[in-house]
């Protein structure tokens, strides 16, 4: 071994990345794929061109207020279910524009709702929802860019409201804005759904900031798991043979999860931390706890992986003689996102109108995957969750660098572009009967609506 490498290996202050050249290879392949990729094309006309053009003008007029809103949220980050100031700012801006928006709805104190003025009372007319998120991350603020999501959703809704003011017959259906808190780790949209937020909708749309413009990317389903092992304490020197070691059980389970990863599907993930493991080395540990995230690409594989993880933990308890408590889903699970291709294509057309070269799904590596509670929405109604570029491609979500990007000039441009694209997509959906039928048919062909709350309780939901 060269001396320099040996010194580095022995230097506890230096941690070498495991695969320093990996992203160079990924980037080179991605660049080749991007050169061949083309934005999705829609076979439908959508709304009239002059209405879409007027939407673009309205968005530019709204842009200063939307950018100010995003900056205000960025400067005052609030975490899950504590977004009182944030939701008040959103509701206040909508109220200033004559919109009857209100918070504390659907059983969630920091959720909000508004319906487009002039919406027909006829429940048979199509209804689309535009969603805004606004919760931040502990410690690093808006490192997932939810301030950009918030402003874009509000911008799209206000643009449609002003279009209807100017042309009362321009929007033939109904539009709802939903303020959705607590996406980060708490599945806020599922709590809202159980309170009725997504009933009576025909589609739901939102965006998420990212390092790329892309219509769809893999969003993994996610569950949380707390595993508590209970043993028997004993003096570790005088009578260790009288103890039942909960730390042993936790350690075996941790190692078992590590071995399980070899047989997991390529993009599946299990993250584990030991939150309890004893207080004194001289006492056989009576209680130990593991906390886990379990993720998979499909609802059924997430259920399968959940069972395999649980089997590992129960096996560890059996091996050590411990008792074990298995507590799934401290907050509701998130399903993977099921994106509607027909809606994607209309969103892509709008982004092309803004001069953006948006990528289709499948171009970015599947390994670059996270989770979102919008998945639960997408299994109730047709939906899209496209990504809008605000940062360099090398910048990851949930980093200080992405938090900076969420307040950058690129983010300001993204807010205008996303506001237009969301508004145009909603208008297309409400204006074009053939498009709406294709959206609904695609949704039904993919399995239709799923009973999300009971999915993981059923042994075979099919």
TrEMBL record:
Domain of life: Bacteria
Domain Peptidase M20 dimerisation stretches: 222-314
Pfam families (UniProt xref): M20_dimer, Peptidase_M20
GO biological process terms held by the UniProt record: folic acid catabolic process
InterPro entries: Amidohydrolase (IPR017439), Bact_exopeptidase_dim_dom (IPR036264), Peptidase_M20 (IPR002933), Peptidase_M20/M20A_hydrolases (IPR052030), Peptidase_M20_dimer (IPR011650), Xaa-Arg_dipeptidase (IPR017144)
Keywords: Hydrolase
Presence of the UniProt keyword Cell wall biogenesis/degradation in the record: no
GO cellular component terms, A-Z: cytoplasm
Family annotation (Gene3D superfamilies): 3.30.70.360, Zn peptidases (3.40.630.10)
An example Gene Ontology molecular-function term: para-aminobenzoyl-glutamate hydrolase activity
Entry annotated with the keyword Nucleotide-binding: no
Assigned protein family: Belongs to the peptidase M20A family.
NCBIfam families found in the cross-reference section: amidohydrolases
Name this polypeptide is given: Peptidase M20 domain-containing protein 2
